[in-house]
Amino acid sequence: MERLHDSFLKHLAQTSATPLALDIVSAQGCWLTTRDGRCYLDLVAGLAVNNVGHRHPRVVQAIREQSERYLHVIPYGEFIQEPQVRFAERLAGLLPDGLDCVYFVNSGTEAIEAALKLAKRATGRTRLIGCRKSYHGSTHGSLSLTDNEAKKYRNRPLLPDVDHIRFNDPAELSRIDHRAAAVVVEPVQGDAGIRVPDVAWIRSLRQRCDEVGALLVFDEVQTGFGRTGKRFAFEHFGVAPDILVLGKALGGGLPMGAFISSQERMALLKSDPGLGHITTFGGHPLPCATGLAALEVLEDEGLTSHSAAMGQRFKERLVHPRIREVRGLGLMLAVDLGDAELVQQVVRDCLDRGVLGFWFLSCPDAFRIAPPLTITAEEVDLACDVILTSLTAISGKQE
Ligand code: PLP
To answer: How many A from CA of 391 to the centre of ligand 1?
Structure first.
């Protein structure tokens, strides 16, 4: 299959000089199989997407059933499509008051873009505030809110009137003023290397937004659907946002994003001008059907509490002189080695040993553990054994 590999490099736009280039032929549960017959334990889950595992039978069944009825029929909003309505209804039922109206889009970044537009409309203000070390996506608006200069400098000018405050720093909250339309925050920062803020900070952030009339937007693209050991990460803090942004695991493995707010606020998209956000494919019936199926699996199989328990197991087992810290909540973990070179070596070596881990965009000293939430205790132990063996082998070579 040399040809396939060459063609991958030649005809698919590459964004990395050294892609892993695993040639996947099948995926099931927590396992990936490559064309050469190797099996890999997946600690990445398509980057916090496959929370219910790869090809969960109920997700596959939902694809079958919906594909026999209809696929795309009309751009977002015009027709009643049962999978859309049922999924929105189910999501609203799980969320606090004021988060009862869902707009489905195609990705996390699009959901952020639309949330920014809604916040500007709802407040009549233009100033947008993000956090240091945040990641919100790769299109112009979300990149403006993102705080990773390496990813931004080639793309300026970005959005005007954007500012960043330090995450989890109470002293910074006074910088949120009456000009702010929205403050966009990951309740647990992902690509910053999994940073969990203090409960008190998130509560003060909510309070400050209320004081100045800024909308609080939680980006739960990565943290949603049981990833942190709660259904949504904001539940750890007892604080709800004005706009909730979802993506990744939302579609049960199919591409999808959503922003959710109150009926009243969402109604602003209907007039002056109408069609306040437009998408051809948003709310496509297939990801709506699979998203609903995945949500039912999450609930019926108790995967959220399982995520908390398996995360704890990783923390207890990953003890090694080279590991500085294993931080995070549930199965959203960073293994901090305090050494970027070692991180590169360990991730590559673990891959050779059949375990797929991954890097962070803004934290080179740590690597990511974010497996499907269906991972078993035996699979956690297997992953930990491989990581510890790898660390010892690499450390031995270095001495
Ligand atoms: N927000 C967060 C917190 C993310 O982690 C990501 C992607 O990693 C995004 C937004 C963007 O999502 P997408 O890649 O679907 O556009």
So the answer is: 30
User: Quick one: which of 123, 164, 116 has its CA closest to 140?
Assistant: 116
CB neighbour burial string for 21-46, b if at least 16 within 10 angstroms, e if fewer: eeeeeebebbbbbeeeeeebbbbbbb
Q: How far does residue 218's CA lie from ligand 1's centre (Å)?
A: 12
What are the chain's domains?
2-55+303-398 (3.90.1150.10), 58-300 (3.40.640.10)
Identify the three-state secondary structure at position 1. Answer: coil
Instruction: Report yes or no: 20 and 47 within 8 Å, Cβ to Cβ.
Output: no
Rounded Cα gap, residues 129 and 343, in angstroms: 32
From CA 382, how far away is CA 366, in angstroms rounded?
20
pLDDT in tens, 107-145: 999 999 999 999 999 999 999 999 999 999 999 999 999
Q: From CA 284, how far away is CA 288, in angstroms rounded? A: 6
Burial 79-94 (b: 16+ CB within 10 A, else e): eebebbeebbebbbee
Residue 2 has a pLDDT of 80
Report which secondary-structure segment, H or E, holds 201: helix 199-212
Tell me the mean pLDDT in the region 297-315. 98
Q: Output the CA 108–ligand 1 centroid distance in Å.
A: 5
In a 10 Å sphere around its CB, with 0-12 CB exposed, 13-18 middle and 19+ buried, how is residue 270 labelled?
exposed
Over the chain, what is the mean pLDDT?
97
* pLDDT score of 280 more than 80: yes
- pLDDT digits over 48-78, tens only? 999 999 999 999 999 999 999 999 999 999 9
> Could you tell which of 222, 245, 279 is best to mutate to test the pocket of ligand 1, judged by most ligand atoms within 8 Å of the CB?
222
- Among protein residues, the one with the nearest Cα to ligand 1's atom 5 is 222
SS3 64: helix
What is the percentage of the chain residues whose pLDDT exceeds 70? Answer: 100
